[in-house]
Amino acid sequence: MWRTARRLYPIFLAINRECNLGQAPCRELETPIDRSDPESVARVQDWLEKLDTLIQVHQLRQLLQTTQIVGEEGLRALLKRQLERPEKDSVVRDKVDYLLVQYYAHCAPHDVHATNIDHDHVAQVLAPVVGEVSPLVPDFCQQLDEILAELEHCASLGDLLQKKIIDRARTMKDQAGSDYFKPSVLVAYARFNFLLRRGFFRLMHADLHAIRLAIHSMEARGQHSCDCSSAGLSADQAFAELREICHEWKKPFRAAYSVGNTFSQLVSVRAAVEAALAKPVPTKTSAPAVPPAPQAQPKAAQPAPMSEALIMDTCIMHLHDELIKIASKSSSAGCNFTLAGTKLVFASWEVAAFVKPTSASAPGLRRAVAARVLLIQAMEARKKGDSADMSRAIAWAHEEIAHLQAEIASAKDRKEIDTAVSLSATSKRLLALVEQAEKGK
Fold it and tell me: What is the DSSP string of 40-87?
């Protein structure tokens, strides 16, 4: 129970922060000690249940498509939690539906996107999460294959929407009811969803390519805009803005969506630009001369604020450079040194994570140490009365503590006791610092 909870904790905590769900961190899951008393177990289960209830499938999708923190073990833990729920409603089904595709895509061979995928192959890949699957393919799979055959004949998203392919598949899922959670049905829908997603992105990129090609052709004949009012845009829509809109469509979605509603505008934009291209070239009219306006002095460009990822990576880079220098001068395993005026103490395994990063736990250790350094610097700035984003530094520390707990669980599974002990010690140091920071000391 504890190891599964520790794998779920960094995932849930990241969604909690990213989506502003408002739940405080779980102290029991931030200490590396596995307690068996009913009170501790209940608090862990309550915390996970609260987050699980709040998290929607589109928020899972947002995290999994924009970060690399969820690997095979994390996906398996997420699926195990949903599949073992006693009450399985449509929300649970939608989470399982999405997670099975993610798990298959993560674990399947790299060339799977270019090959035919049959029921047996998907069953083999999904066996760790759905268990043994009957070799008999469910009868309704014939209907799913018929839908996929129609998808292969689609040339655009407009064709897909017109044939109501996604709506028909969802209706079939609704009709399956509780049978949906049978292993053979889960495998059938995982295969269907993967192939549907592959076909969907093929069509989306075809539409985006057609839009860019039409824009390029109109620019070649001297146009700079066209009428896109039918797509809910301007009657004189600039091509530069259209290109930016196309770029935004390629990014992962950050909200719940219905494919029909979200991509109908893309379909309409393609129709609008192709209609504009088919029309004669607009005649140019000479505009009356307008005296040039006085030129305002350009404002000095303000440097863009550093992203959280860049701040963390920069800190890791500086620590690496400093520790390499120290390691070349001293044979001491642990070390004390000063970085940008901040006194730091590193344990031997923490130094090794920067100097000789050969272990699987090295990346997690580096991030945890960097989070500790950033939190120390924020605390020192607060003492001096300087500006310090304490809430952000504390949030980073909580997230890295959560990641360390998942690393500890994996180390225990691999029977790497020394690694688990080292990770636990680093986790405890960071947790103690967080508690000190939250008390305002």
Answer: HHHHHHHHHHHHHHH--HHHHHHHHHH-S---HHHHHHHHHHHHT-SS
Tell me which of 40 and 389 has the higher pLDDT. 40
Report yes or no: 156 and 270 within 8 Å, Cβ to Cβ. yes
pTM of the model: 0.75
Residue with tokens 């829509």: 237
Angle at 10 between CA 5 and CA 14, to 5 degrees: 135
Distance CA 219, CA 239 (A): 8
Angle between helices 90-107 and 119-130 (to 10 degrees): 110
Residue 225, phi then psi, degrees to nearest 5: -160, 170
pLDDT digits (tens, 9 = 90+) for 118-150: 888 899 999 999 988 877 777 877 888 899 999
CA distances (Å), origin 185, targets 130, 136, 143, 144: 10, 11, 13, 11
How many CB atoms neighbour CB 247 within 10 A? Answer: 10
Percent of the chain with pLDDT over 70: 88
Q: Name the DSSP class of 153.
A: T
* In contact, 191 and 122? CB cutoff 8 Å: yes
Distance CA 11, CA 406 (A): 10
- Provide the residue type at 383 as one letter: K
State the SS3 of 195-233.
HHHHHHHHHHHHHHHHHHHHHHHHHHCCCCEECCHHHCC
Rounded to whole angstroms, the Cα distance separating 429 from 369 reads 10
Q: What are phi and psi of 237, to 5 degrees?
A: -75, 120
Domain boundaries along the sequence of the chain: 308-438
Do 366 and 316 contact (CB within 8 A), yes or no? yes
Can you tell me the mean pLDDT for 50-72? 86
Residue 137 is classified by DSSP as P
Q: What is the dihedral of CA 92, 93, 96, 100, to 10 degrees?
A: 180
- What pLDDT digit, counting tens, does each position of 388-419 carry? 788 888 888 888 888 888 888 888 888 888 88
